[in-house]
Specification:
This is Helix-turn-helix transcriptional regulator. The protein is α+β, with helices and mostly antiparallel strands. The protein is built from five helices and ten strands. It has a six-stranded antiparallel sheet with strand order 1-2-3-10-5-8, with no helix packed on it. Helix 2 crosses helix 3 and helix 2 crosses helix 4.
Length: 200
């Protein structure tokens, strides 16, 4: 196992159209995956058993990494080897209205929450669409410590936020608040819709 040469690179290591070199692919992948893992250059180098200067060079697109070095880095990052040498494929996810998993509050039809995007590994947020009707405020118990919720009203109006400091929001209004306190969502108009992002 030696260095990856231009004429012996794994499949996916070249992009003739954009003239991306194998070193540039590896550099971009290392920066991306290290960022996702939340590791400093020093910490990743330590975990992989390589020099900090070596890792810095690789992230700068310099040097020619050996397969052993890339293997050690992929193990330290907890990813497949191919994630460091293959060009990333853009992913697009579309969820049409009414398709996401929906949870209703009890037996009532006056409040429902639809999960639009669950947090993927390395991310720390979920995205929901809230549909609510006036009549009964939705009171939520405190979530785990450090949770922050973000709400944008799409249609209608609602009283949102910590139960003792709730604020009336209208279409286009945005609010963030601590989700680790008791909080509420009280629709003030029929057909109220909001987007809620739970950051944890």
């Amino acid at each position: 196992m030696g260095e990856i040469r231009q004429d012996e690179q794994p499949a996916g290591m070249t992009n003739a159209r954009s003239k991306t070199t194998p070193q540039q692919l590896v550099a971009a992948a290392l920066k991306r995956e290290r960022g996702r893992a939340g590791l400093s250059i020093t910490e990743l180098a330590r975990r992989a058993g390589i020099g900090k200067s070596t890792l810095s060079q690789l992230e700068s697109g310099e040097g020619n990494p050996s397969v052993e070095t890339l293997w050690a880095l992929s193990l330290a990052l907890g990813i497949q080897f191919s994630a460091l040498v293959d060009a990333p494929t853009p992913t697009v996810e579309v969820i049409r209205l009414g398709e996401g998993p929906t949870i209703k509050a009890g037996d009532a039809d006056d409040y429902s929450s639809t999960l639009m995007s669950a947090a993927r590994p390395g991310t720390r947020r979920d995205i929901y669409v809230i549909r609510a009707e006036p009549g009964k405020p939705r009171i939520s118990e405190p979530h785990a410590r450090g949770v922050v919720e973000h709400v944008i009203i799409s249609t209608g109006r609602a009283l949102v936020g910590p139960t003792d400091h709730a604020v009336e929001l209208s279409p286009g209004d945005y609010m963030s608040y601590a989700g680790d306190l008791e909080h509420m969502f009280d629709a003030l108009e029929p057909g109220t819709v909001a987007v809620l992002v739970s950051e944890f």
